[in-house]
Structures are given as C-alpha cells and as structure tokens.
Amino acid sequence: MQKVIIVEGKTDQRRLEEVLAEPVTFLLTHGTLGEEELLRRLLPYEREDVYIFVDADEPGNRLRRLLGRWFPRAKHLYTRKIYREIAHTPLAYLARVLDEAHFAVREEWLLAWERKVNGKERGRRRRRGRNRHFDEEEGSEGRGT
C-alpha cells in the first residue's frame, strides 16, 4: 500500500519533500477545484494509506472536513495555528509531524527539532532556577531571617 498525502498546493508539496526520506504520492487540491472534480481525482486512491495535511486556516479546515467525509480512514496531520500554512511551517517541525506519523524523514531535520526543543527546555530551566533562587532570597528576607 502506498502512502498518499493530500495537500493544497505545489508549495506545500515541495516543502514536505524537503524533509521526507521516502517516496510519497502527493495529491494536490489546488484549493479552487470544484468538489466533483476533486472527488474524481482522489477516488482512485481511496484504498491507499491516505494522509490529509492542509493549512491551519478556515479554507484548510473546510477542506479537511470535506476530505474527512470522503476518506473516513484517512489520517490527519496538522501544522500549528501559529504557522497557519504548511509553506510557513519550519522544516524541523514538519519533520517531527511526519516522523510521528511513521514517515521516513531526513535525519538532519529531526536533529534540528531536537536541538530547538532541548535548547528551549534548558533555557527555561535556567531561568526558573534563577527565579527560584531569587524568590527564595526574597522569601527569606520577607520572613525576617
């Protein structure tokens, strides 16, 4: 069974291809196709392993609902609302989403994501540690010790 990712446009496809390390069939909706034409193009893939990965905006949400009715077994992949579009989503984040969906992705993008996440956690710990120390000093002064 082949993996098929439904995306809105060519830019989304290119963006995902940058992080993928396996062959995947892309089906583009082009955002403006009529429902009948779109269904005609997509139906031959209904028995495949279908993934829906569209933008996190209102047109993307409408398309996701429509595709979900046509492909109830499809797996839904999401970008974060702060990125809105797949085209604006960091490649490292796309790699994480695809990896969690069991796609083979290029190792450098997973490492980039891990560095980003681990760097932020370390920074938070350091800040929390400093604040805790400051708060303890403040607290001890406030108690008259």
What does this entry look like structurally?
With 145 residues, this protein is an alpha/beta fold. It has helices at 10-19, 35-42, 58-70, 91-100, 107-142; strands at 3-7, 25-28, 49-53, 75-77. The radius of gyration is 21 Å and the shape is globular. It starts with a strand and ends with a helix. Residues 122-145 have low confidence and may be disordered.
Relevant terms:
5 helices; ribonuclease M5 activity; Dna Topoisomerase Vi A Subunit, Chain: A, domain 2; disordered C terminus; Toprim domain protein; 145 residues; four-stranded parallel sheet; TOPRIM_dom
Low-confidence stretches: 122-145
For the record, the count of structural domains works out to 1
Spatial arrangement of strands, main beta sheet: 2-1-3-4
Q: Rough shape?
A: globular
Mean pLDDT: 83
Distance between the termini: 70 Å
Q: Do you know the CATH architecture?
A: 3-Layer(aba) Sandwich
InterPro entries: TOPRIM_dom (IPR006171)
Biased composition (Basic and acidic residues): 132-145
Region (Disordered): 124-145
GO molecular function: ribonuclease M5 activity
Summary of the model, kept short:
This protein has one domain (3-107): 3-Layer(aba) Sandwich (Dna Topoisomerase Vi A Subunit, Chain: A, domain 2), CATH 3.40.1360.
